[in-house]
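Cross-posted from the bioinformatics board.
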Amino acid sequence: MSRSSTGETGKTTTDISPTPTAGRPRRITVQSGIQDTILHPGTVRINVQGAFIVVDEPVTPRNGDYEHDPKDIRLPNHTAIVSHIAVDIGGSLAKLVYFSREANSNSIGGRLNFLKFETDKIDTCIEFMRKLKADHHQLNGSRPGELCVMATGGGAFKYYDRITETLGVEVIREDEMECLIIGLDFFITEIPTEVFTYSEDEPMSFVPCPAQPASIYPYLLVNIGSGVSMIKVSGPRQYERIGGTSLGGGTLWGLLSLLTGARNFDDMLKLAEKGDNSTVDLLVGDIYGTAYNKIGLKSTHIASSFGKVFKMKRAAENDAEDGCNGDYKNHEEAEHVQGSVELPHAPGTFQPEDISRSLLYAVSNNIGQIAYLHAEKHNLPHIYFGGSFIGGHSQTMNTLSYAIRFWSKGSKQAYFLRHEGYLGAVGAFLKRQPMNWGRRNSFESSVRNSV
Amino acid sequence: MSRSSTGETGKTTTDISPTPTAGRPRRITVQSGIQDTILHPGTVRINVQGAFIVVDEPVTPRNGDYEHDPKDIRLPNHTAIVSHIAVDIGGSLAKLVYFSREANSNSIGGRLNFLKFETDKIDTCIEFMRKLKADHHQLNGSRPGELCVMATGGGAFKYYDRITETLGVEVIREDEMECLIIGLDFFITEIPTEVFTYSEDEPMSFVPCPAQPASIYPYLLVNIGSGVSMIKVSGPRQYERIGGTSLGGGTLWGLLSLLTGARNFDDMLKLAEKGDNSTVDLLVGDIYGTAYNKIGLKSTHIASSFGKVFKMKRAAENDAEDGCNGDYKNHEEAEHVQGSVELPHAPGTFQPEDISRSLLYAVSNNIGQIAYLHAEKHNLPHIYFGGSFIGGHSQTMNTLSYAIRFWSKGSKQAYFLRHEGYLGAVGAFLKRQPMNWGRRNSFESSVRNSV
């Protein structure tokens, strides 16, 4: 399915240089913009001129209910009233983006704030939005009743009635895929030090904003949340979902919550960092006793994820049935050969660390291979990974990067983003922009379709 | 990596009609063949003329040590002495193929027997081979000392010394990939009612042997054992490993042995048949409350395998901490909305049946998608699924078939085999064949390379 832009075209509120300039000329939003905003909440034009990332102490301390991402985006030149917030409600997490004026500051402009909630605690998210509505005047000068919520993700449909009724505001629903790519285009094109490549030698190598925004197309977006969507993007708002897999973040979190004592995603990742997957994975060397040189598989190549578990578990059970002194054990010892699969440690004891690492590798490698194959099929040289699964975790990014390099023999490159979890929310926030806003003309029109 | 045939060319011992005939003319192996066999064990020429599958009562009762597949292949016209057996030792299973004369029968010919052992119990397999060696004269007329073992799979290297020393026979190692495709070519080309397509409406629709053997190329072989290999086959003995995934049978067996009480693969499959994956998988309908029509995803589409587990498990833990009468539970009930993810039954209770079905779907769907993408990339219209993972299990075949149809929009077809687990073992058994043996000339040369 391919979409091109349709709908009414917004008005330009800023003058744009035909070519990017080295300096960051300050633009003032014209007065008519404010009038439009009051008449049409949600159609405000955000001045992203000179936007950049500021890493602050968290504005709101992290707690059990939500997490305030400390990587705000400063919008030093935006002066108009913002009367909307945006929320992207996925299967596991709800992501919220809102604009606020600088507190205790005389400077113009403000910042985009990024928060995430668990979708199961959606009422906490709705309560937070209710508070934003109450504080709206203080935050950016509009009246409480003027707030409008831009909503995307599956939860925009599922929780539509609840949000509308609780907040008493207009909720405008936007298509999830479209918001993702609008958000990604914005990050790629407008925000310095946002996009980076990852390797063990150079963990975070930033990619400059492109001189020609059109040069970013075509690309593949791999969005990894609970599940995985792969979206081919051919141009501004021209996209098609070409694939996906159900083996995503939800699979990792779900299986690890059953298999380890970890109760949250951060704990799982910490476990994975300490683990050794070779105690549970069957490696090529375990099968061959050496590498399978003929087809170029190293002895450390993972032949089967969790491939050692079944036999080791059963050996342990047989042992237990034999009262731990039966024939089986002696038999095992007599049988043991160099490089054998059998039991480097006591059978049946699997460490949570090793299980976590194995599953993280399995899910990440798998996504990497499928992403490469879709990129290959559609001739897409650049692959962007977004979604909350990645969470800035080095092992995950390293595995994804490695998979893309391995499968493409170095011809394709994996890109990551510092705001990887907020593509959809930012896209929903920015969607209603006039023609030619922003430094790089990265959006060609303003569309207002309720989905 | 592409290989074409090399090495010495064997001699033809049977006359072959230039075109296949409807009847099955009886061929007698000439005397020189027997002399050659004695001089060069392992170079015997199997007469596959008129071969067909017979489904018998198991010759050897199934027991804990090995399984005798009841689907023997009758070779009604083979009269020469066979002085070799073949074994394919994989990461989880060792597969054995040997020839035997018909017991209590005056008919000429004999049959191929198929057995599998667990690789962890490799000594049971070696003991079985020792017994075959002792019985060799009775089975097919050669002397015990003449037995030769053709070995393939990783275990052919890992256990080489052990087999050689225990049996005191020559062990000839063959490349795993080459054996797989020789075996598959044989099954496709020579054995009626071997290859079939699968759908729910028509579970086993047999594909006739091709009139022109060359018409089977190119094809993709997806071999699913502990891990998965994907091999592009362009012609007889022309192949390249183009991909694979570590998410294979070993992953399913390993994770299910940890997550369910099942202690063997058959039990796991029985559990899966009774399960309902929607209690653990996050479906599109769970996220949207409806289908995501815009991109054609049905509400029953699996968005995230095990995507419900994390939140349900944590809810259960919170409940337990609250003494099961705390705020959380009331909160949950108040929050419950139509079509919600939350808790169709008591939180935290996951049925082994549901877990098994979810994981079987996840692994099979994933293999199906990756297979389709590789087939698409290399323009391969036919996809054959082999390996012990499939095991004739209808749910697995249905999921694989569905995945290929879904992703290829009906343009590609999944094929299965009744001897799916024995491709490598049969290939090793048949490898040393003379030029132009067999009804359909499916092998062009005899190669003798020790790997």
